[in-house]
Amino acid sequence: MNLDNFKKTWEQQNSDTDAAIKINQAMLAEMKVNKQIKTLNNMKWARTLESVVFFYIIFLLGQYIATDFSLSASTISAFILNIFAIVGLAGNIGQIVLISKIDYAKPVSQLQKDIYSVCSHKLQLTKLLLMSAPFYMAYVFLGFDLLLGVDLFQHLEQQMVLFYSVTSLLLLTGILFLLAKLHYKNIGTSWVKSTIQFIVGERLVNMAQFINSIEATDS
Amino acid sequence: MNTTKKTLFAQTMEQHKGIVYKIVNSYCQNQDDRQDLAQEILTTMWLAFDNYDTEYKFSTWMYRIALNVAISYYRKDSKRVDRANADEECIVKIADFSQEGERSEDVVLLYRFIGQLDKLNKAIMLLYLESEPYDSIANSLGMSKTNVATRIGRIKETLKNQFETQES
């Protein structure tokens, strides 16, 4: 048997399929929302809540910068962390817009990419956190100033400053490499697959594999 | 949605419910998942019905939505949910494929073959079997016509090899 014979078999089964499925029209008409739409709505609410948190952080850090507007280590630290919070807020707003635009009538590859973007939020958030890791001293400087009122940078020796700078630079290089790799295009690499599965779950891995399979033969 | 639209939707779904049946049997391995996916497809159709794009044939448009729902369908713990919903009234009832004695051997074989394909090839195969032209398949899936043709060629080759192995 070949694919053309299969086509004939397929056409012949049409009359049988009608009897094999029964729709409760009354119940269907009462349906306002289904599981997938409910999940998307929940995601929209979660992103809105996160946006409020990010906005609050931006506000607090902005207030801190405004009260002590100088080139001190703690003010620069607050400024750096504020940039991350702004990126986080922008990402969340982007997610809310994207969720609102989810349309199941779109071509399959396009919709699956949209759903991937929506579902990969946790991965993006982790990436943002990791990206701030090379600037770990910003948290330390700010923490010392807020909790103890001490400008730690002033008390650091030249060698220590150099050590922290080199560590940050090395961390930045490593993190940039890691973040570039954590992309659906690299899902074939086992450690990327395991990392994404660990952070977000199996569903995102499946979606990444699907998008990849469409793009692999198209490119 | 007003009564006229409800009636129109009901009639349209009755006409095209075969699409739902074919998709759920191609994408799901067990009966509970089939039932659940069929419900998801129908409710998504209901929610999207107002935005039907008349540029497309209804069956083509419905296939696109149903495939999108099937491909993005994911149940983490189907058994737990199934037990919870076992006694609930369902929007849709699908006959258990494995219990349908009158199904021809060829149809069973066909679904078994489709079941072995990956999600994308399943979608291509379903649209191909519905005699959709290559450019329509490409348009629905958002890929190039060449890619569609290449994949259909590969599916044909796999099928040929499978039958040769079975016969020998």
Tell me the distance between the termini of chain A.
Answer: 32 Å
Q: Count the strands of chain A?
A: 1
Order of helices and strands of chain A: HHEHHHHHHHHHH
Total strands of chain B = 1
Basic shape of chain B = globular
Please count the helical segments of chain A.
12
CATH fold-level topology of the largest domain in chain B: Rna Polymerase Sigma Factor, Chain: A
Oligomer: heterodimer
Query: What gross morphology of chain A would you assign?
Result: elongated
- Rg of chain A, Cα atoms, Å: 25 Å
Polypeptide structure, described:
The complex is a heterodimer of chains A (219) and B (168). By secondary structure, chain A is mainly alpha-helical. Chain A has a domain at 34-156. Chain A is built from 12 helices and 1 strand; from the N terminus they run ααβαααααααααα. In chain A, helix 4 packs antiparallel against helix 5, helix 5 (73-100) crosses helix 8 and helix 6 (108-119) packs antiparallel against helix 12. The model of chain A has no long low-confidence stretch (mean pLDDT 89). With 168 residues, chain B is mainly α. Chain B folds into 2 domains: 1-102, Rna Polymerase Sigma Factor, Chain: A (Orthogonal Bundle), CATH 1.10.1740; 104-168, Arc Repressor Mutant, subunit A. Chain B has 8 helices and 1 strand; from the N terminus they run ααααβαααα. The longest helix of chain B is centred in the N-terminal third of the chain and has 25 residues, at 3-27. Strand 1 (21-23) of chain A pairs antiparallel with strand 1 (92-94) of chain B.
